[in-house]
């Protein structure tokens, strides 16, 4: 343990120049910081996002719906660069007062409907198209896992991921605390998947789409470079599920949308047509 101690002041003051990870996108106030309207494309659904795990949930869902033949799920996906504060533009804040990606504006009806929070977007789309959410008691099970993910992911990302990978100093207490919780989550998923093909049983649902981007990234060492630290290879049932879901064509496409990092052949900064996956990746536009 470090001998350094921090004594909180009676009243906390924000230091915008603290140079810590993500300091430029975090602030203690809500609301618009600049006037900037959102672009609107030709499709019924307008998505404003970035290919973080939360963003990928939604693009996977949209690609799954299109693969099932739902033309009404056609969408324009606009890249929101949270690094430059685009989420604090007036148009984005009007769509999501919480200034977080992703946000969906459903323009298929008489007036636009905003939907923010990734779990709410998945549920909205599942109910709108009658897909990937079961009926009866199975629906309750599906929603339980969906909301489990919404509650668990902040402990994985904002807790473990931040203190393990991004904090300017390594704090043993914080890393130990969140590592124990993340390993418990991984064990929970592994035990659940020992008896089920998918998270809720035999059917692939929005619960799988919500959980896969976060836990798939960690186990495959694509987030935080912590797979060895977490002994990810020991969660064999979870790995089986991650591999199976990852082979789905809509999942592969969904990971590419609004992605400005990694292999250029996997970067589709904006998506406005199905042909964009073949014609407008960054290896083609910016070789």
Task: Give a short synopsis of this structure.
By secondary structure, the protein is an alpha+beta fold. It has 10 helices and 4 strands; from the N terminus they run βαβαββαααααααα.
Provide structural commentary.
The chain is 44% helix and 6% strand. Strands 2-1-3-4 form a 4-stranded mixed sheet, with helices on one face. α1 packs parallel to α3, α1 (53-67) crosses α6 and α4 (136-166) packs parallel to α6. The chain has helices at 53-67, 90-95, 118-129, 136-166, 172-194, 206-219, 236-246, 249-254, 276-279, 282-285, and strands at 45-49, 75-79, 103-106, 113-116. The radius of gyration is 20 Å and the shape is globular. It has 10 helices and 4 strands, in the order βαβαββαααααααα. It has 2 domains: 1-132 and 257-275, 3-Layer(aba) Sandwich (Glutaredoxin), CATH 3.40.30.10; 136-247, Up-down Bundle (Glutathione S-transferase Yfyf (Class Pi), Chain A, domain 2).
Q: What's the architecture of the largest domain, going by CATH?
A: 3-Layer(aba) Sandwich
Tell me the total number of β-strands.
4
Q: In percent, how helical is the residue content?
A: 40-55%
SSE run? EHEHEEHHHHHHHH
Low-pLDDT stretches are none
The pLDDT mean sits at 95
Q: Give the full name of the CATH homologous superfamily of the largest domain.
A: Glutaredoxin
What's the helix and strand layout?
Blueprint: E1 45-49, H1 53-67, E2 75-79, H2 90-95, E3 103-106, E4 113-116, H3 118-129, H4 136-166, H5 172-194, H6 206-219, H7 236-246, H8 249-254, H9 276-279, H10 282-285
